[in-house]
Amino acid sequence: MAKQEAKVRKRAVVETAAPVSDASTEGPVPVGEPHPSQESRLAQYYGIVVVALVVFAILFYLGKRNEVQRLWFPEELSEYTGADDKPILIAILGTVFDVTKGADHYGPGGGYSHFAGRDASAAFVTGDFSPAGLTDDVSGLAPSQVAGVAQWRQFYVERYKQVGVLAGRYYDDRGEATAALRSVEAALEEAAHEDARRKEEEKQYPACNSRWSQAAGGEVWCDKGFPRQFFSGSEHLGTRCACVQAQDLDRPDLRQYASCEKYDNRCKTS
Ligand code: HEM
C-alpha cells in the first residue's frame, strides 16, 4: 500500500515537473494562425528588417551628402582668404576648392590673392582683376572664353581639393545647378563644336606662313596653294590667312589680298 502510494506521488511529481506549454494555459491555437511563440519570432524578424532599412537609409543619405559636399554661402566664403590662419578657398563656376597649399599665390599679398574667398570666374580669362572684373558672371564671354574658364576649373580639380559648391549664380541654396550653370554647359558644347569645325577648316585651308618686320612690313606665303583671306564665319575668330588650292579659289568665304595676283603664292599684308 505504502509502495502504491509512493508510485502515485512519484507520477504526480513527474506530471508537475513536465514543461507547461502555452497551449495548456491559453487553450488551443486556431488552425492556420501562427503559434504565439512564432508570432514573437516574426515580430523580432520584422524589427531587424526595419532597423536594417533605417541604417541603410542613413548611410545612403550620408553618402549622398558627401557627394554633394558642403554648400557655401558668399559671406562665409569671403572669410577664407588665408587671413587669421584660416584655409584659403576659391570658387570657380560655383565649385569651391581649398587652395591653401597654393598660399604663395592666393594668400594675403600673393599675386592671385584677389581670387581668394570669392568666385571671380570671368577674371580667369579676361585678366581684369579690377572690382568690376572680379565677377562670376561669364554670360558676356564668347564660348571659347567660357571653355577657358572651364579649363581653369579642371586645373583646380586636378591640383586641389574640391570642398563644395557655392550658393549663388551657379548653384541654388539647396546646392542644385541653376539655369546659369546650364548656360555654361551649353556654351561649352558650342565651344567644342566650334573647335571641331575650326580643326576641319584648318585641314581644308591650312594656315599661311607669315612674318612681319618694321622695315619690310607684313608678308604671308604658302608652300602649297595660294594665300587668301579667309573668314571663318565666327565673329571672334575673325579672318586669317589660308593656303587655298586652285579649285577652291572662287569660294565666297575667301578674299584675294589686294597686293596679290590670283596665282601669286606670296603677298604683302602691310
Ligand atoms: C588672365 C591672366 C592670368 C591669370 C588669370 C593667371 C592665373 C594664375 C593662377 C590662378 C595661378 C596659380 C596657379 C596655381 O594654383 O598653382 C598662376 C600662376 C602663375 N602665373 Fe598666372 N595668370 C595670368 C597671367 C599670367 C601672366 C601674363 C604671367 C607671366 C607673364 C603669369 C605667370 C604666372 C606664374 C609664373 C605662375 C606661378 C606658377 C607656379 O609657381 O606654379 N600669369 N597664374
TrEMBL record:
Region ranges (Disordered): 1-36
Bilayer-crossing regions: 43-62
Domain Cytochrome b5 heme-binding: 72-167
InterPro entries hit by this protein: Cyt_B5-like_heme/steroid-bd, Cyt_B5-like_heme/steroid_sf, MAPR/NEUFC/NENF-like
The UniProt record lists the keyword Membrane: yes
SMART domains in the record: Cyt-b5
Keywords per UniProt: Lipid-binding, Membrane, Steroid-binding, Transmembrane, Transmembrane helix
Similarity comment: Belongs to the cytochrome b5 family. MAPR subfamily.
Name of the protein this chain belongs to: Cytochrome b5 heme-binding domain-containing protein
Organism: Klebsormidium nitens
Lineage summary: Eukaryota, Viridiplantae, Streptophyta, Klebsormidiophyceae, Klebsormidiales
